[in-house]
Amino acid sequence: MERIQWDDLPGSLKNAISVRTGPITTGHAVADGMNSPLAAVIDTETAKVFVKGLPSGHRQAKTQLREAAAAPMVKGISPELLWQFDEAGWNVLGFAHLEGRAADYRPGSPDLELIINLMATLAAVEVPNGHEPVKYAEDRWKSYVDDPRDAEVLAGPSLIHTDWMPDNVLISGGRAWLVDWAWATLGAAWIDPACWLLRLMAHGHTAEQAEALARRLPAYATADPAHVDVFAHANVSMWTEIDEQHNRENTAAVWITTIARAARRWAQHRGVL
Ligand SMILES: Nc1ncnc2c1ncn2[C@@H]1O[C@H](COP(=O)(O)OP(=O)(O)O)[C@@H](O)[C@H]1O
Ligand SMILES: [Mg+2]
């Protein structure tokens, strides 16, 4: 994905945005994040807005729909979704701007406590009937387990985020906020602490340390260990495949290799590799 600079965006797209925000004073593409060609902070005379978008026909455009589906469920956990449109060939979401910084996942970081609080709040989110489409955990990981039926242990009623990259957790005003619901999923509530645990291991935690932090979340502490084993093993397959694909396509990235290695260490720690 190539992030597009503000000045290089088509005028028709900027117009469609300014219809929602009022006259735009300045716009700046943000540096963090991975998947959105458009991710920018916009200043108007009265407010700052974060906009995120993809060309309407883009293979990943449905990530926008999932993100919009999650928004009403995560008010107070994530910046508010102000508006959305599919116009001028672009699908765009506008969020309240949050002045913050990416979380620090290293051992001893004071952010870890804030993230445990964030996850505890997220665990209490109720998913209403008739919500907009999101992913299902049992589908997401089914091609990474030995028997597709094994993935049923991942099914559940909870809204889970699953993409716990540190730049999707913003620290602001003494608390942690979660952005980027592109992979909004329904599944077992312990999956988010488990996804976070892998990221912690990729940032210097041992498997023991990372599991101890994940166990601070009741959903993880009470999860059936056999179910977590299935997930640990599936993550080895998934991250190894992603890593190998990037190597083949000459887009190797250290963070992916590091997570793939963390996934293997976690599975070894649990005795499933
Ligand atoms: N509401 C917001 N306010 C301020 N910055 C934001 C906001 N949402 C996201 N960001 C910043 O923009 C980056 C990219 O946004 P994100 O939604 O993660 O898109 P991507 O799909 O490209 O990863 C984030 O890592 C974060 O630094
Ligand atoms: Mg992101």
Give an overview of the whole structure.
This protein is α+β, with helices and mostly antiparallel strands and 273 residues long. Helices cover 37% and strands 19% of the residues. The strands form 3 sheets. It has a 5-stranded antiparallel β-sheet with strand order 1-2-3-5-4, with helices on one face. α5 (191-202) runs antiparallel to α6 (207-214) and α8 (225-248) runs antiparallel to α9. The structure holds adenosine-5'-diphosphate and magnesium ion. Residues 33-34, 165, 167-168, 180 line the site of magnesium ion (MG).
Short description:
The protein is of the alpha+beta class and 273 residues long. The protein has helices at residues 11-21, 62-70, 111-123, 137-140, 191-202, 207-214, 218-221, 225-248, 254-269; strands at residues 24-29, 38-44, 48-55, 81-87, 90-96, 101-102, 135-136, 158-160, 169-172, 175-178, 185-187. It has a 5-stranded antiparallel sheet with strand order 1-2-3-5-4, covered by helices on one side. The protein has a 3-stranded antiparallel sheet with strand order 6-9-10.
Kindly report the spatial arrangement of strands forming the biggest sheet.
1-2-3-5-4
Count of alpha and pi helical runs: 9
Instruction: Supply the number of structural domains.
Output: 2
Largest beta-sheet details: 5 strands, antiparallel
Query: Which CATH top level class of the largest domain fits?
Result: Alpha Beta
CATH topology of the largest domain: Aminoglycoside 3'-phosphotransferase, Chain: A, domain 2
Mean pLDDT, to the nearest integer, reads 96
List the ligand species: adenosine-5'-diphosphate, magnesium ion
Helix content: 25-40%
CATH architecture of the largest domain: Alpha-Beta Complex
**CATH H-level superfamily of the largest domain:** Aminoglycoside phosphotransferase (APH), C-terminal lobe
